Amino acid sequence: MLAYLYGHGRITVKIAAETIDMSDATARKLLRRLVDKQVLSWHGNSGRDPKQYYTIKHH
Known about the structure:
Blueprint: H1 2-8, H2 13-20, H3 24-36, E1 40-43, E2 53-56
Antiparallel strand pairs: 1-2
Helix pairs in contact: 2-3
């Protein structure tokens, strides 16, 4: 997922799931953990926002 992010700048749950060949729920959990660890930033209006995505957090 991180390699994809470095190459593309942003990632969605759907793309993350396809990248790691896991379910959307698993990908979402992994992305949220990276947000909690302040590796990624989440962008969206709500948890159900269809346009939500993640980017690498720049410190």
